What we know:
By secondary structure, chain A is mostly helical. In chain A, 77% of the residues lie in helices and 3% in strands.
Amino acid sequence: xxxxxxxxxxxxxxxxxxxxxxxxxxxxxxxxxxxxxxxxxxxxxxxxxxxxxxxxxxxxxxxxxxxxxxxxxxxxxxxxxxxxxxxxxxxxxxxxxxxxxxxxxxxxxxxxxxxxxxxxxxxxxxxxxxxxxxxxxxxxxxxxxxxxxxxxxxxxxxxxxxxxxxxxxxxxxxxxxxxxxxxxxxxxxxxxxxxxxxxxxxxxxxxxxxxxxxxxxxxxxxxxxxxxxxxxxxxxxxxxxxxxxxxxxxxxxxxxxxxxxxxxxxxxxxxxxxxxxxxxxxxxxx
Amino acid sequence: xxxxxxxxxxxxxxxxxxxxxxxxxxxxxxxxxxxxxxxxxxxxxxxxxxxxxxxxxxxxxxxxxxxxxxxxxxxxxxxxxxxxxxxxxxxxxxxxxxxxxxxxxxxxxxxxxxxxxxxxxxxxxxxxxxxxxxxxxxxxxxxxxxxxxxxxxxxxxxxxxxxxxxxxxxxxxxxxxxxxxxxxxxxxxxxxxxxxxxxxxxxxxxxxxxxxxxxxxxxxxxxxxxxxxxxxxxxxxxxxxxxxxxxxxxxxxxxxxxxxxxxxxxxxxxxxxxxxxxxxxxxxxxxxxxxxxxxxxxxxxxxxxxxxxxxxxxxxxxxxxxxxxxxxxxxxxxxxxxxxxxxxxxxxxxxxxxxxxxxxxxxxxxxxxxxxxxxxxxxxxxxxxxxxxxxxxxxxxxxxxxxxxxxxxxxxxxxxxxxxxxxxxxxxxxxxxxxx
Lengths: 286, 436
């Protein structure tokens, strides 16, 4: 039982972080970035590159992988999505076009990485030792990832709540037209939000590369799916929803692994379907 | 004097006319038969042998494909270095050219491109695609167009049945099949149980794909038949966020042996077993975990980390400790190093993969480019290859003089063959030492 409580929380923290980035992007920019997992993958590869070629500690590499992928995200937003925002006549049209653009972005990012690094699985194994928690053994890298995930989530929450930039982002979410009227540069907020979402995703990717051995250019979609599952459960555009949804999925996932690993994803899908029927906007959705 | 040139108007009898006509007809037919079936019409002019390959150069399968299809490139390079492939109907060696298409790890695309190779590009030979599922799908096409193929990365009892029944006459495979593997595993564990250390319970987990399902089922069946208990038999889908609950289940069940019919996630499983201080007497892992370049490279293991870990798949398995195979292993490392890094030693089936392709080429050298004759030669002949006398057996694994079945990491850069005992390169380490 202890392993489910602690293990589920660890997984949940990581899932929450992955989802928060995507939720932020969609909430502010109305772009459902289904290439979100590819930015996670980029973070993993930056950490791998720094570790393998320069001996950089994977935890230290977080300070490099995050900003690097932030810059990549902002550049993509400026060159691709800003154009779509300008050209689209309605938010529905923007969502549709950006979805298609993200599909293409997925394949581009996968193949760029594959061309540079090959498709062989990579890893940056680090902190694989264990510590006991309430009588159960847990790997240190997973605990560290969970703690960092929660820290980043709290930091983001404080950014949104206590800073002017955060206020501007929340205004852009709640009333985009009104925000522009009061002088908020919506286009800059979009770029910042998109970049921030990519940064968060990259940090999750860097931590995942420490934990798992089979990181390839093609791992992105499975994490995008996890993020979507969390967002559907927790609610689109809700920070609290992403946090709680992540923990919920983490617990379901861990518990079902104990019962029968084969039905894990089926159980997750089942909860998503039930939520879509009962409360389509999610637990905390607007 | 009579004019000898004056024709006598002598009537030829009907009987004589019939006899002459029959003689002429028989002569014409015999001559035509001699020409077409004995001498044969002259082959059309040809300046190269074209081999078609559809493989996963991008997408989820591309990593595995890059590893295993290395030998496609090598054998073509090796033959071209010697002038090409000898084709008897031309009496000379012809250089080999390849046409390669990327199926993007998409099965439908693989089938379309394979058909393109056959019907449009009209290649002389085909190398099989990567993975059991893709090969299985492609066998129907080879059957339709009569292209004999030696499939390297293939292991399915379902398809093997069709090979044995004649439904897939043109497909040949190299690797041990699930049913054969189950028997080898059961024999090995029985030997260990009687001679080394008691083994009663085995836990089997597997990836929920065709490979995992077939191998796990076959192994479980044969183990239970031998009297072993299998208290844990679970499957999982990828990604597995954590193996902690699964390892916990195996630990609680008190299994002596853990068998994971999966892929690179086996590395995560090993790390989790180490994390939970779970030390079964033996661990078996699946494809990719036998590749030195991966396990000692990106997977981050040292040889000491894996001592005692066995590999159930990828046989016939060669040992590279001595003789010609020792040189072959060093050649392999040097040749593969630019692609896979410094530990690019061969995995157990490397030499047998190469040998499978040698069989195909040697069949051509013996009977020419007639694909029916190539097929018959593959089915009946024994060839000299890098692993000794080698025979393809339709519907079964390839038979090699110098190869075994089960292999084990024993602290070196390459795996040791531990079963069967008569071809083993090292004794079995069991129980395996505790994780370092």
